[in-house]
Amino acid sequence: MVTKEQVYEALKDVIDFELGLDIVSLGLVYDVQVDQEGNVSITMTMTSPACPLAGMILEQAEDRVRQIEGVKDVKINLTFDPPWTPDRMSEELRKRFDL
Fold first, then answer.
1. Model confidence at 92, in pLDDT bands (50, 70, 90)?
2. What is the pTM (predicted TM-score) of this model?
3. Which residue range is the domain that position 51 belongs to?
4. 22 and 14 in contact (C-beta within 8 Å)?
């Protein structure tokens, strides 16, 4: 059975190339749900609604999660509510950037 932890680990391979950091550490992934059949639903955002790389990031996230054994389907819900702020970054990144 696919777990949330597996999905989060896979999403750490997806890099926001403008910032050079993974989308999980940036706090762009708001929620992950996995049902009993292996269907994965991800709610995430971008650092800005005008992110020029949004399409590429979403495609890479979906592709990476589909590589997990047992995943049947992947749905990514893009939201800007609540909007992303640097407070959503991992503690490690906040320290690194002195936030």
1. very high
2. 0.94
3. 4-77
4. yes
